[in-house]
Amino acid sequence: MAPLKVLMVAEKPSIALSIATVLSGGKLYTRKASTEVHEFDGMFLGSHAYIKVTSVVGHVFRLDFPPAYQDWNASNPLDLFQAPVHKAESNPKVHICRHLNQEARGCGHLVLWLDCDREGENICFEVIECTGFQVNDARRKVHRARFSSVTEKDILKAMGNLVEPNRNEALAVDARQEIDLKVGVAFTRFQTTYFQGKYGNLDSRFISLVFSSLFLICFH
């Protein structure tokens, strides 16, 4: 019987290395890619498996407005609250989404080792989207590892207690990100326009920076 093929994804490269080192007993092969990929033969769910461990570098995607709303002079700040938003890669030069899609090919299991908070849960679903896996797909299964540290004890415990990712927590982060984007950009544009009208010689980039900082302090 052919071994299972498993892809594991952590939130950053150092965590991926720690997980791979524990699960492989230190016997692994590492190759370069958008983020390093650690490969080894091991056991997964009681069966022999070929395992790959790689990582993202935080959020794969960010929210933004479409081009029609990017021009400050073409849209009213109030219109931004009803404007559509779309997701774009956070670090397009790193090609994380393409990297995950390539590494997932031929794999029947995806194990998500993202941080155990709402942000981590949101990144779980970003990874799922990039890899082409589907939650509740009987042929290609998605697993969520819940852990509090990257010690050998916690990693092995997480492997023995895999669960499903929590879509509701991920959606809560989507909602918060959209609110942050719309309120933050509308507030900054309104204040920038207001102060430029009173003090025309002020640099708009400076005003935008100041009020973006104030928004983050006040609402986070």
> Uncertain regions: pLDDT < 50 for 5+ in a row?
none
Structural class of the secondary elements?
A: alpha/beta
- Overall 3D form: elongated
Q: Could you give the count of β-strands?
A: 8
**What percent strand?**
15-25%
CATH class: Alpha Beta
Could you give the order of the helices and strands? EHEEEEEHEHEHHH
Q: Helical stretch count? A: 6
**CATH topology (level 3) name:** Rossmann fold
CATH architecture designation:
3-Layer(aba) Sandwich
The percent of residues in helical segments reads: 40-55%
Query: How widely separated are the two ends?
Result: 53 Å
Indicate how many domains the architecture comprises.
Answer: 1
Order of the strands making up the biggest sheet: 2-3-4-1-7-8
Give a quick account of the main beta sheet: strands, pairing sense, barrel closure. Answer: 6 strands, mixed
Backbone CA Rg: 21 Å
Mean pLDDT: 87
InterPro entries: Topo_IA, Topo_IA_2, Topo_IA_cen_sub1, Topo_IA_core_domain, TOPRIM_dom, TOPRIM_TopoIII
Pfam families: Toprim (PF01751)
Organism: Citrus clementina
Family: Belongs to the type IA topoisomerase family.
Provide a descriptive summary of the structure in words:
Belongs to the type IA topoisomerase family. This is DNA topoisomerase. Keywords: DNA-binding, Isomerase, Topoisomerase. InterPro entries: Topo_IA (IPR000380), Topo_IA_2 (IPR003601), Topo_IA_cen_sub1 (IPR013824), Topo_IA_core_domain (IPR023405), TOPRIM_dom (IPR006171), TOPRIM_TopoIII (IPR034144). Pfam families: Toprim. The chain contains 6 helices and 8 strands; from the N terminus they run βαβββββαβαβααα. It has 220 residues and is of the alpha/beta class. The chain has one domain: Rossmann fold, CATH 3.40.50. The chain has a 6-stranded mixed beta sheet with strand order 2-3-4-1-7-8, sandwiched between helices. It has a two-stranded antiparallel ribbon with strand order 5-6. Strand 3 and strand 4 form a beta hairpin. The protein is elongated, with a radius of gyration of 21 Å. The N and C termini lie far apart (53 Å).
